[in-house]
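WARN no homologs supplied; continuing
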Amino acid sequence: MSKPPERGEPYGRTPVEPVRVIRSRRTDALAELIQAFKEAQEREREAGDQRAARSAPSASAEDTTEELPPVPPAPSTPPPEPPPRGSVPRSAPDWTPAGAGRGLRRAAVAVAIAAAALIGFGCALLLPVRGEAGAAPAARPSGGASAAPAVTVTATVSVDPDGPGTLREGDTGPDVVALQRRLLRIPDVYRDGSVDGRYDSTLKEAVARFQLWYGISGDERGVYGDDTRRALESRTALDHE
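OK structure emitted
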């Protein structure tokens, strides 16, 4: 008894392998595509040539162009006369509408300034007249003589920066004597000093020494002012006080 073939085995014949089918390509379609592309390029080239021909100026248009007649020269004007010496040259007037407007504005401003000046001058004249009308008339001297002009004397009063009653080098008098006596009561300030009523350099040095030792800074150094006076009088007393 024959053995049946196994699964997948052929029945006693050579197996047939699959054959690859190669289809032939149509070359005529590619040729047609290339031909169409060439024709499109030719048409585009011809269209470009036509546009260039239309844009170029034609010879007939150049022939029909006429030249414009020459412009006649402007009439010669005589040169302006030079201005006289010392005069300021004036510029030519501007007759344009803008220039006329500017001229009108300038004229209006000048008129306004002149009117304001006249009004101010009139007010300045009227104010003194009104003040003199309200005042009593001054008495005139008899005999028709004209009155002498009034002279105003201003007295200048010098104010001592160190206060009234300030003593300094060069002064003399009883106030200087009182100062010398008081300084003699302060130890080692005016040692063996004289009481002669003269504010000399020795007394100035004694006053400066007193100011330095007791911290008095309100007066000038060596000047017996208000601050130095109060400090000295608070520390000393004279016999008649």
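The chain has a mean pLDDT of 75.
OK
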